[in-house]
Amino acid sequence: MIIKPHTIAPAAPTVPAVSAEAIGFTYHGAERRALGAVSFVQARGETIGIIGASGAGKSTIVKCLNRIVPEFEGGEFRGSVCIGGRRLDGLRVSDIAGAVGMVFQDFEAQLFSTNVAHEVAFAMEQAGMSRDEMNARIGPALEAVGLAGFEHRDPTTLSGGEKQRLAIAAVLALGPDVIVMDEPTTDLDPEGKAEVFALIRELRARGLSLLVIEHETDELRACDRLMLIREGEIIADAPPADLLTRLELLEQCGVHPPDLNRVLAALGIAQHASDVDHAETLLRNLMPALPHGSSAPATSAAPHPLIAPDAAEQAERPLIEIEHLSFSYPGGPRVLDSVRLAIRPGEFLAIIGQNGSGKTTLAKQIVGLLKPESGRVLIGGRDRTTLRPAETAQQVGYVFQNPDHQIFAATVEDEVAFGPRNFGLSAEEVERRCAEVLSAVGLEGERDRDPFLLGKGERQRLAVASVLALRPRLLILDEPTTGLDYREQRRMMKLVSELNDAGIAIVIIAHTPWLVAAYARRVVLMRRGRLLFDGAVRDFFADEELLRGSSFRAPEVTALGRRFGVIALTAAELVAWLQEHR
Amino acid sequence: MPIYLYIERTGVLHRLHPAVKVMALFVMFWSVYWVDQPLALLPLGLLMLAAAQSAGAWPNFYRLRWLFIMVIIFTTLAWMIFYRRGPALVDLKIIHLSRASLLFGFGRGLKLAELLATSVLFLSTTKIEEFTLGLSTLGVPYRAGFAISLAFRLAPLFMDSAVTVYQAQSLRGYDFNRGGPLERIRRYVPVIIPVFMGALRKANATAMALEARGFGRISRPTSFIEYPIAARDVGAVIVLFAIGAIYFMIYYTGYGTIAVR
């Protein structure tokens, strides 16, 4: 039976949108099964969040729903899936497109057309719809995702959030029984993430059946149910209020427990906070004497070991000095506009801002991949343009956002040794450095492995190791946690912190608020090529007006702390303050 | 900087039926193929310049100006090494500088530049959906036509990726310019491998997304955009046939070849 999207009669409300019965799967050549025997039912209009560590089997589950598994990704499949009451056995992936709309993480890979309206029409063309029917569906689909009026725009000119909303519009137009989103916000900046999460909430309110895989548990609190996956099995299937209070279980499964719940649990409140307001109410019920306040000066905050200003550090000559730096790409608008910045040895700096604000361009200027239009970059007091590549590499290392942009060697060891060998170091020195950095990044046991067989987190650490092997005094990491699950993010940032403790200055380009708050000591906020803020991370999160205008949200614990007149950067910090005021 | 060549305009070339544009691409390739004589290639070059003006495609030609110049110069020089006919004007050892080798080499360079110019013009005036429709109208199976046009869309992304990989390896001290010509080619392995692996991943992700959107479900999908055949399309086909026939005649009568004296 072929499901025709334009002829689907709405199934009776009692018929589930999805019914998966004992689905199991083992990828070709894999030693262990990706899925055991997973069973679940999704009622019509229900929104289910799927959480779990990378490799737990989340994507495999949703790929079974439109037969990408096993039709596209070969292997041994067991069990059965019904969509809207119809069994999928024997159908091709394309036959199910009208019943299961799928939105992928990589928005570039799922847009095929040169204008927005045509992008939405693409799947309808494949279903053989008439032009009139396509026209009738395009408008409402674009309106539903807030892209009405964008019909003639080229999708490549849209922002990341808009591209992902367009991908959702394209599946919405077919009127599917269920929409599946596989980590739809991973590659987006905070503004893009907020756009997509707002849309998901809206689609849920309109009664659509949604399945959303997401690492950011805070955003899944509005779901009807959450399924926690570990090693190809559903470990827990419960409403968010029940599952998100099981902090230990979430940690064990590599999932970020909501920080609000962590704060409550630390104070003995075994309840789920649906948002900051709710958490405030619960805390005030427990501690009626808590002060009121919308914000407080940074100095009133509990002492944080990371923010203590280091006088010696401040006095030292900057490692990097950027003087009135301006830059435009050929034929394009100004990307950097008279930027001034100094980075001192041992600093931990986060550069934040929307996509296109100039963050990566600034980093590329520092390492010498781009030449200034005007102004200059000094490294250790010397104009960067006068330094040889080897001299620059010994001062500044740059880890690209995607580790796969540099990995090519046959073994992990060769990958790390590549840089030192290029600089003509002796075999003994190369060996010494390989051992040193592989140990630092926790890959000492993987020396002979093929880098392409490593997980994403391991490849990211390998990329860091291969740059570290050049022993730079400053390490720039461009969004080093993108695409990593919570456990891998923590591991990566622990590594970066340790490097900083060892004296290496760190600059991270980051989009994740909790990560900036927890690890950075200084924040530079960029907008349209200019520095909007440059100061201590606590001062940044204390400035509500600045935050509102920056589209960068404070972590929820910071927002909660502000209700009591304190600027807390982490859950532990807020808990410590609350316990003092108990 | 835009990574695609399509320029949004409403000129005559833009409004031609996609099948006519694909046909024009073929006829231009065909015409260029038959002649070696630079003088015979000149009218085609002038025709393309006029078309570029009409289509507003100058920005793309300007972007690629160095590519055109390099293609002509290096092809001319390369053929002067291998095409050793006619009396040498000056003894330059490896390079055989004769009137015939100069004309032949320059002709080859001009040919390549005109093939490149035709492609740039085509991509400046044709969206990938139109490319697919044009191919399928001319009888190419839809899946094959779509794959060809998608390759044009993905190529700039792979180029972009290659630049990033090149930068990443340069920052690790890698010198791409060391050694002789063969060694230099070999030294691009650290770029080729990551780009190739990235291309495989991207192709896999794209193929999966295409299937999930119903691609290949029916052999002849409907088209959202309507392309009625207009009088200008008929006129263009007549002109194209005439150009193709004229250039075949130039070849057939021997006027397109280089005379060795």
Can you put this structure into words, describing what you see?
The complex is a heterodimer of chains A (582) and B (261). Chain A is of the alpha/beta class and 582 residues long. Chain A folds into two domains: 16-257, 3-Layer(aba) Sandwich (Rossmann fold), CATH 3.40.50; 311-520, P-loop containing nucleotide triphosphate hydrolases (Rossmann fold, 3-Layer(aba) Sandwich). Helix content of chain A is 36%, strand content 20%. In chain A, strand 4 (75-83) and strand 5 (86-87) form a beta hairpin. The relative contact order of chain A is 0.10. Chain B folds into two domains: 1-140 and 228-261, no CATH class; 141-215, no CATH class. Chain B is built from eleven helices and two strands; from the N terminus they run αααααββαααααα. Chain B has a two-stranded antiparallel ribbon with strand order 1-2. In chain B, a hairpin with a 2-residue loop joins strand 1 (88-92) and strand 2. The longest helix of chain B has 30 residues, at 142-171. Chain B starts with 11 loop residues before the first helix and ends in a 9-residue tail after the last helix. The mean pLDDT of chain B is 91. At the A-B interface, helix 2, helix 3, helix 13 and helix 14 of A face helix 8 and helix 10 of B.
